[in-house]
Write a structure and sequence with these properties.
Blueprint lengths: L4 H7 L13 H11 L11 E6 L2 H10 L4 H4 L3 E7 L4 H15 L7 H22 L5 H13 L11 H25 L3 E5 L4 H8 L6 E9 L23
Antiparallel strand pairs: 1-2, 2-4, 3-4
Length: 242
């Protein structure tokens, strides 16, 4: 029986050792579909998910992950990749969707306005935020926005480094969707940052603009797969009501 959201969150632990027991590829794929439904900045979905089932590639990736147990014993791996370089394509995909969704002969005035606001967002604002040249435009935009921000609230994250962070935050949300979905069906995962990301990109033949967000080991937990009891800083130390 599939777990509730709260049950899945409580069940999920970073599993470092997996049983030598296969898991259903289609079920993992469905969990990755759930990952693609995660919230994402400006709905740009600047992510890709590489679902690794090939024994040969698994072995190569485990080596690139320093042969840590979470990779070496995983039955499958998922590599979460950010693609900030695809912002133009994804913005255009949103525009195409909006044009199709609002393609009605007698569109209400409020919907006409909404369509224009949304398409202007992708045609004007997104290029303003994401366009750059050798970091120079980002630097100019950053200081321009800081000055304007002295007089009114304004978006301040305009440099290449800022947009990289935005893309990785969205990818992290997708990865969490995936891991909770896996936990819900009794599968285990371990998100790993410890890897030679250049070698990972070479193994997967990724383009220059792609960046590795995390690699997630997948399988069924061994009895020694959880290294210790769960520790969390007391909730009172991280929760603030204003």
């Amino acid at each position: 029986m599939e777990k509730t959201v709260s049950e899945a969150i409580a069940y999920r632990r970073s599993t470092r050792v997996y049983k030598d027991e296969s898991i259903d590829t289609e079920k993992v794929k469905q969990c990755l579909h759930n990952a693609s439904l995660a919230p994402t900045s400006s709905n740009l979905q600047l992510w890709e998910f590489y679902h690794i089932t090939s024994k040969d590639i698994l072995k190569k990736l485990a080596k690139a992950c320093f042969n840590q147990n979470a990779a070496k014993t995983a039955q499958q791996l998922v590599v979460v990749v950010t693609r900030k370089d695809l912002w133009r394509n994804r913005a255009q995909a949103n525009i195409n969707f909006l044009n199709k969704a609002f393609d009605k002969p007698d569109l209400e005035p409020r919907l006409v306005k909404r369509k224009k606001q949304a398409t202007d967002y992708y045609n004007k604002l997104i290029p303003t935020i994401y366009s750059d040249f050798l970091g120079i435009l980002g630097f100019i935009k950053y200081w321009t926005f800081q000055i304007v921000g002295l007089f009114r609230p304004i978006y301040r994250q305009t440099r290449q480094s800022d947009m990289r962070i935005v893309a990785h935050k969205s990818a992290g949300l997708a990865a969490q969707n995936f891991m909770i979905s896996m936990a819900a069906i009794g599968y285990d995962t371990c998100p790993m940052e410890g890897s030679d990301t250049l070698r990972v990109k070479q193994i997967l033949n990724l383009p220059r603009g792609a960046e590795i967000n995390m690699i997630i080991g997948c399988g069924i937990r061994d009895e020694n797969g959880i290294y210790g009891p769960r520790f969390r800083v007391p909730f009172e130390e991280v929760y603030f009501e204003r």
